[in-house]
């Protein structure tokens, strides 16, 4: 049973310990759930449910792996000292199934953000197209950075690659310069691999 406690991170843990907990909780939350988001096809089956409570139970069980991951990461960063606790956006963009040359906004934590990003554009589109993590110490120095939020000073974007193709990206913004390090890159790449294995994109 999914419990809110999964996204509780004790104060005073090291980043290594916090990422360890993120990966452990993510594995537990993904068990038996292959959905990156609640399956909209399920909504078409609404009339086949005998009663509304059956439908709600089924939809609740269709937990969204990306939404839960965004929550885990948000709380993980905010349990850490500066600069990690200055993370102001954590979320996903997913390859648009209707227009594969662009990404569309997925589950996130933080303020509203741009809805579509063309492959090759901005930090997200660059990571998606190149299939390589973009670790940006200062977004003002990244040509073509898309400023959804003027408060963002640094950013890391990690592609989720499945069968050799980018299916989504993890995007994390920080309101401080040099918000992310190689330690973040390594842990987030491991998380991206887990997501690629665990979800039906
Ligand atoms: N800064 C990103 C756009 C997405 S927002 O940060 C949420 C980019 O340059 O691709």
TrEMBL record:
Entries under InterPro entries matching the protein: GAF, GAF-like_dom_sf, Phosphatase_reg/MetRdx
Annotated GO CC locations: cytosol
Domain GAF: 90-196
Gene3D superfamilies to which the protein is assigned, alphabetical: 3.30.450.40
GO molecular function: L-methionine-(R)-S-oxide reductase activity
Domain of life: Eukaryota
Family designation: Belongs to the free Met sulfoxide reductase family.
Protein's name according to its UniProt entry: GAF domain-like protein
Species whose genome carries this gene: Massariosphaeria phaeospora
């Amino acid at each position: 049973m999914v419990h809110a406690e999964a996204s509780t991170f004790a104060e005073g843990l090291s980043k290594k310990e916090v990422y360890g907990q993120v990966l452990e909780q993510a594995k537990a939350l993904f068990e038996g759930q292959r959905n990156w988001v609640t399956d909209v096809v399920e909504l078409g089956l609404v009339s086949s449910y005998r009663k509304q409570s059956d439908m709600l139970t089924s939809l609740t069980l269709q937990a969204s792996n990306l939404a839960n991951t965004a929550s885990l990461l948000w709380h993980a960063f905010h349990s850490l000292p500066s600069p990690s606790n200055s993370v102001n956006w954590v979320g996903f963009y997913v390859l648009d199934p209707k227009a594969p040359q662009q990404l569309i906004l997925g589950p996130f934590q933080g303020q509203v953000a741009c809805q579509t990003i063309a492959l090759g554009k901005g930090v997200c589109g660059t990571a998606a197209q190149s299939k390589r993590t973009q670790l940006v110490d200062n977004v003002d120095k990244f040509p073509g950075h898309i400023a959804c939020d003027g408060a963002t000073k640094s950013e890391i974007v990690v592609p989720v690659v499945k069968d050799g193709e980018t299916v989504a990206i993890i995007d994390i913004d920080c309101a401080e310069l040099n918000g992310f390090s190689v330690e973040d890159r390594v842990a987030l790449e491991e998380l991206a691999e887990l997501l690629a294995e665990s979800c039906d994109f």
